[in-house]
Amino acid sequence: MDIILLHVFIVLFISVYEIRCISHPKPSCGYPPSQWCSSLEIAIECGVRKQCMELNATRPDPMVPFVDVTLYYESLCQGSRTFLTEQLFPTWTLLKDIMEVNLVPFGNAMEIPEENSFICQHGEPECYVNKIEACILHEAGHSAFHVIYCMVSSADVLKSAKSCLEQCAPFVKWATIESCAAGDLGHRLMHENAMKTQALKPEHTYVPWITFNGEHTSEWEDRAMSTLFSLVCELYKGIKPPACTGAQKKLDWSFC
């Protein structure tokens, strides 16, 4: 029981720290909390070796596949932003040991190959922000989701992009993202997202469009919009982690 309580404390502490991003001073070890237990060396440097050992003892069976949740969305779609901020990010924060998230910013956009361009539902600004987010996903690795959550939580997704990157992924230069979005790499990333979106079976008819382990059903979509946490716990085939069996099902999150 003590181990489970410690696990819950660590998850909640890391969750709050990551969501606030820089509301607290950076740890002296120089790594964000999400990486403290990623290796023995980092755990020792950050002074959390004992806590990480306890946490690893409660982790699910590594042989059981993660629940793969893929979000096909548009960067300026309010419905997409609401789902990402109120369901997807909080659920992933609590269940990242059994859940993998993939983001595909494209949605109802159209690719015009003969013009080497894209048309987006919310105009050219959305096409640009889609590229920005695609480039962040490409460049920022494990920190990309935190950056995008920071962006979509703000009043202005594009204006917040630079500061969110500096806060949540300071190892990536804003100039790198701008260059990516304006160049061939950004175009290629958007083309890849277009191909992924167009390959959906059944074909997507709205956004956000959510798949679980590559599959989409109307029932899952409806449940995901309000109770994603419970659905992911249900879909996981292994022994349920403490987060699923504890009292952490009320998701009430806000960005600093």
Automatic annotation (TrEMBL):
Organism superkingdom: Eukaryota
Enzyme class: oxidoreductase
MF GO annotations: oxidoreductase activity, acting on a sulfur group of donors, disulfide as acceptor
Residues annotated as signal peptide: 1-21
Record-listed E.C. numbers: 1.8.-.-
Annotated localization: Secreted; Lysosome
Membrane-crossing segments per the record: none
Gene Ontology annotations of biological process type: immune system process
Keyword entries, A-Z: Disulfide bond, Glycoprotein, Immunity, Lysosome, Oxidoreductase, Redox-active center, Secreted, Signal
Protein's UniProt keywords contain Acyltransferase: no
Domain Saposin A-type: 22-62
A GO-annotated cellular component: lysosome
Stored Pfam families: GILT, SapA
Annotated function: Lysosomal thiol reductase that can reduce protein disulfide bonds. Facilitates the complete unfolding of proteins destined for lysosomal degradation. Plays an important role in antigen processing.
Similarity remark: Belongs to the GILT family.
Database matches in PANTHER family: GAMMA-INTERFERON INDUCIBLE LYSOSOMAL THIOL REDUCTASE GILT, GAMMA-INTERFERON-INDUCIBLE LYSOSOMAL THIOL REDUCTASE-LIKE
Assembly description: Dimer; disulfide-linked.
Record-given protein name: Gamma-interferon-inducible lysosomal thiol reductase
